[in-house]
């Protein structure tokens, strides 16, 4: 079958980070793809070992849209998408090639390809490949479009423009007001030394009190553009495209990796006591790669922006492996 006649489905649940990983791989693969929206019912709490190959845990309206003709490739992310992917492969008579980004949990032998970052530590499997970080869809083309769309609104922000990308609470660690104040203090000191303007973005995971503590600690910064989640168009890509340096909290694999897709200096805020071991491993890898430094090192540097690197694009690595395994 020719490339043009192959088809790809991306399974998308409520997690935008998971969706962006899958879309990045699908776009890098270069095959026309369709997004299938997935929502769940109460059965989704059951482990995959029990669910097996089924749509039983998918809401009725979404399950009704999983119909033939079946795709050649399914790309998904997250534990609960696995039974859906398995069901599609069963419906297709075993023809569909299943791809999972992130480790989905056991059982995994029937999945055709699993891509996990090097900082995760699953056992070796024939169907497992490793990536630097999380795949993403932050391509140079998309950055160029975002820069053009936002240049009128952000182009006059003083340089060096510093993007400040803030995550928040994770399962094991809280982004507390104390941490937010510390982050704001370090960023303010950086701006006092190097000048320029701030492009600030918080996320759904940013606790409201911590967000206000952060913004209060940035009051000394004279030029600041703030975007709060769900208030108007999201300038996230424009921040990456138009900034001269990026500061990112270290609680998100996706956010750290996407920042390192720019080729611009990235500084990671990750206090030791509030950072998970797997995130520490990711940060060390990014430091060794040359794409990032600890935020605490920035004040001692001779320059804020005087270094670059080859942008990290794990989606392309995964796409090449899919192509090799399905004979493109």
Main attributes of the structure:
12 strands; 17% strand; six-stranded parallel beta sheet; alpha/beta; 12 helices; 328 residues
What does this structure look like?
The chain contains twelve helices and twelve strands. The longest helix has 18 residues, at 177-194. It has 328 residues and is of the alpha/beta class. The protein has helices at residues 16-29, 48-51, 60-63, 82-91, 140-154, 177-194, 208-217, 236-242, 253-259, 277-289, 295-298, 314-326, and strands spanning 8-12, 33-37, 73-77, 97-101, 113-117, 128-131, 161-165, 197-201, 224-227, 245-249, 266-269, 292-294. The termini are close together.
What is the radius of gyration?
21 Å
Annotation field: number of helices: 12
N- and C-termini, Cα separation? 9 Å
What is the makeup of the main sheet? 6 strands, parallel
- Choose one word for the global shape: elongated
């Amino acid at each position: 079958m020719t490339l043009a006649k192959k088809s790809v489905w991306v399974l998308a649940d409520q997690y935008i980070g998971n969706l962006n990983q899958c879309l990045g791989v699908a776009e890098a693969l270069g095959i026309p793809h369709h997004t299938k929206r997935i929502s769940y019912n109460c059965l989704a709490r059951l482990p995959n070992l029990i669910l097996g190959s089924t749509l039983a845990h998918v809401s009725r309206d979404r399950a009704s849209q999983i119909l033939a003709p079946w795709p050649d490739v399914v790309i998904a992310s997250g534990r609960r998408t696995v039974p859906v992917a398995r069901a599609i492969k069963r419906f297709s008579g075993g023809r569909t090639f299943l791809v999972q980004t992130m480790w989905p949990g056991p059982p995994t032998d029937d999945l055709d390809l699993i891509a996990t970052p090097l900082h995760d530590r699953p056992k070796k499997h024939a169907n497992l490949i490793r990536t630097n970080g999380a795949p993403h869809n932050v391509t140079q083309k998309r950055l160029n479009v975002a820069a053009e769309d936002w240049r009128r609104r952000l182009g006059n922000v003083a340089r060096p423009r510093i993007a400040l990308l803030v995550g928040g609470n994770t399962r094991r660690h809280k982004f507390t007001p104390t941490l937010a104040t510390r982050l704001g203090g370090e960023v303010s000191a950086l701006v006092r030394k190097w000048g320029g303007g701030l492009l600030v973005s918080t996320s759904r995971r940013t606790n409201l009190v911590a967000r206000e503590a952060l913004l209060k600690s940035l009051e000394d910064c004279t030029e600041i553009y703030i975007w709060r989640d769900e208030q108007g168009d999201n300038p996230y890509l424009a921040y990456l495209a138009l900034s001269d340096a990026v500061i990112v909290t270290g609680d998100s694999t996706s956010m750290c990796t996407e920042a390192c897709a720019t080729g611009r200096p990235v500084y990671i805020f990750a206090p030791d006591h509030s950072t998970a071991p797997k995130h520490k491993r990711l940060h060390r890898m990014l430091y060794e790669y040359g794409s990032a430094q600890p935020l605490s090192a920035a004040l001692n540097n001779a320059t804020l922006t005087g270094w670059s690197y080859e942008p990290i694009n794990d989606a392309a690595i995964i796409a090449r492996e899919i192509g090799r395994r399905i004979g493109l």
